[in-house]
Amino acid sequence: MSDPVRFDRRGAVGVITLDNPPVNALSLPLRTGLRDALAAGLDDPEIEAFVIHSAGRMFSAGADIREFDTGVAGESPTLPELIAQIEDSPKPVVVALHGTAVGGGCELPLACHARVAVPGTRIGLPEVTLGIVPGAGGTQRLPRLIGVLPALEAIVSGKPMDAERAHELGLVDELVMDGQDLVEVAVEVAERLVESGALPKARDRDDLLAEAREQPELFEQFRAKIARRARGFEAPYACIECVEAAVQRPFDEGLAFERETFVRCRSSLQSKAQRHVFFAEREARRVRGVGPDTAKLTIQRAAVLGCGTMGGGIAMCFANAGIPVRVTESEQAALDRGMEKIRGNYAATVAKGRLSAEDMESRLALIEPTLDFDSVSDADIVIEAVFEDMALKKDIFTRLDAICRPDAIMATNTSSLDVDEIAAVTSRPEQVVGLHFFSPANVMRLLEIVRGERTSPEVLSSALDLSRRIGKVGVVVGVCDAFAANRMLYPYAQQAQFLIEEGALPEQIDRVIYEFGFPMGPFGLGDLAGLDVGWRVRQHREPTRPKHLRYSSIADRLYEMGRYGQKTGKGWFRYEEGSRAPIPDPEVEQLIVRTSEELGIERRDISDEEILERCLFALVNEGARVLDEGISERASDLDLIWIYGYGFPRYRGGPMFYADSVGVDHVYATMQRFHEVHGDWLEPAPLLERLAREGGTFADWTPS
Ligand SMILES: NC(=O)c1ccc[n+]([C@@H]2O[C@H](COP(=O)([O-])OP(=O)(O)OC[C@H]3O[C@@H](n4cnc5c(N)ncnc54)[C@H](O)[C@@H]3O)[C@@H](O)[C@H]2O)c1
């Protein structure tokens, strides 16, 4: 391994180069090298100042997160020790930033005496997304440099800002102009500091904090502003407390408070869960049979068949990523309706101020509506999103096979049909894949990539690549009824329905699930998706149900009453005109109570705990079957599916991580008890039993 830190001289300036590929993580060898380089330069009478910069594509992505769990992050020199050494240096230290400077890779620059950056450099403190606070002075120095409100916004959202904005705010002192060399500019800045004798330190600044002291209500207002977005999360509030400490306490006390908070957050279950999700996203890109050398098709032109609910949203995904896309329908009226819906969706985003009118037009210009089916022949990828009907899909794929380029990817957005059966009508099943988007397709981040028996590694690799380009989290699963996501959703929703027959009401169940951290409960979700959609799914699933297994008919009755959910103003709940707020409806309660009577069930009080365990453990149990059957390669993929597909609270790490955290043996024992009382739907999955017996976890499980 090469030395992660180099030291060169440019006149009287010591230039320190960090070189720890691929992201210049601030690992122990790098920290040690930097400490030693600074110490040597301080001892050298010919060195009057320093420039720190990095080799490679970025300044630094920050701490090495894996060191958190091994304890190496705590070995001297720790990042806070190193940062103090820089700030206290009697010789000025100028940092030169390019690419990305985030986390510790931003905290270190904050302690330097001046910051120079290439325009476009992304600078920020994303620690909050890992369930922690910045732990090396970020919450104390940033508000001193850019002001309290901008610092709160940056730290609590975790979103990096570009160097231009950072320059406006005073974080970056100088931007490098076109044609200038970053290090040369930094050396000049260092020489100027030497000449002036100035040694500006963030810790000494108080002017912007003083302004904030004049507005003590600022913090409460900020908490109110993030309340919805941050519901259930601990770290955003811990970040606010640290910035509050920066305003109210002397620098060293604030720093100590930040450190304590950091250490507390780091060992919290929430942070472990959020770190798990961070690694799960990276892990999901590793797919059996797909390697770094697997060829990928770069997608330059796309086509979507069907411009309904899903097709329209999928077309928007391409346009949003700058990829031209054709959408087809077989009739003009349907095409016009679909395009109108797309335009309406964009217009709503413009009205909310999240998109400029100009960007809306340029995105719309990338979507080309057409009735000419054959015109999709030049697309690199075609995604079929027509009605859920096997005969129709087979017909479409036969026609696609005749016109598409040999290397084109032919994808189906089916939510339940057999991808292998669809692929079999083509002469090239290796080019066929399921790309299961979630509704609304332009919003939901999950993309379930369904690997058919014959799907080629190149197609999978290209699909994974595409998912990232269009801002989705791609998770590869195998073919089975309903794939992984919906397959796990069914037992969850089904238990909710059994529970209302036994004594609960939809509003109680939705409250429990909401308080657990989901954006809504199963009944609200049903009303949003449409009870007619669920009814149609049951029509083709029900005939396969073994007759000894219990069935809840209440949803069918609501459907027969024309209560389709939000779209008809009535479903499990009722809705006032123009509102999405669910209101409990006595008519539904009567129907539920009557159904219990008909079934001879004596209604009982059901505890919140039972609701949570019946619903969640049932879905974990199904997840265990999905793993055992080889439909999914790893439990963390299922966690991503639930976080990005259904809003499972990220701070709980996903259902399989949650099961590990409450104990697989507890989940198993509870399922056993439920099975005895409530019958076969709740029979513990063999994998759950095995893990419980062996003291295993889903996290450590690997396919045998
Ligand atoms: N709605 C969801 O939540 C959801 C989620 C994931 C996947 N899906 C799947 O996506 C697919 C589409 O579902 P949807 O909800 O968008 O349905 P939809 O009824 O809203 O849209 C289907 C569109 O396909 C068009 N169409 C029908 N035959 C066509 C043909 N021969 N050529 C071109 N266009 C044709 C129809 O006119 C209609 O506009 C289905 O396979 C469905 O299972 C739906």
Task: Give an overview in words.
The chain is α/β, with parallel strands linked by helices and 704 residues long. 50% of the residues lie in helices and 11% in strands. Strands 12-11-10-13-14-15-16-17 form an 8-stranded mixed β-sheet, with helices on both faces. Helix 19 links the parallel strand 16 and strand 17. The protein is globular. The site of nicotinamide-adenine-dinucleotide (NAD) has 23 residues, from helix 14, helix 15 and strand 15. The site of nicotinamide-adenine-dinucleotide has 23 residues, from helix 14, helix 15 and strand 15.
How helical, in percent, are the residues? 40-55%
Strand neighbour order, sheet with most strands = 12-11-10-13-14-15-16-17
Total count of strands: 17
Cα distance spanning the termini: 35 Å
Q: Runs with pLDDT <50, length 5+?
A: none
Give a list of the ligands: nicotinamide-adenine-dinucleotide
Averaged pLDDT: 96
Q: Which class best fits the helix and strand makeup? A: alpha/beta
Shape: globular
Q: How much of the residues is beta strand, in percent?
A: 5-15%
Number of helices: 30
- What is the alpha-carbon Rg in Å? 28 Å
The biggest beta sheet reads: 8 strands, mixed
Characteristic key phrases:
704 residues; alpha/beta; 8-stranded mixed β-sheet; 50% helix
Entry summary:
The protein has 704 residues and is of the alpha/beta class. It has 30 helices and 17 strands. It has an 8-stranded mixed beta sheet with strand order 12-11-10-13-14-15-16-17, with helices on both faces. It has a 6-stranded mixed beta sheet with strand order 1-2-3-4-6-9, with helices on both faces.
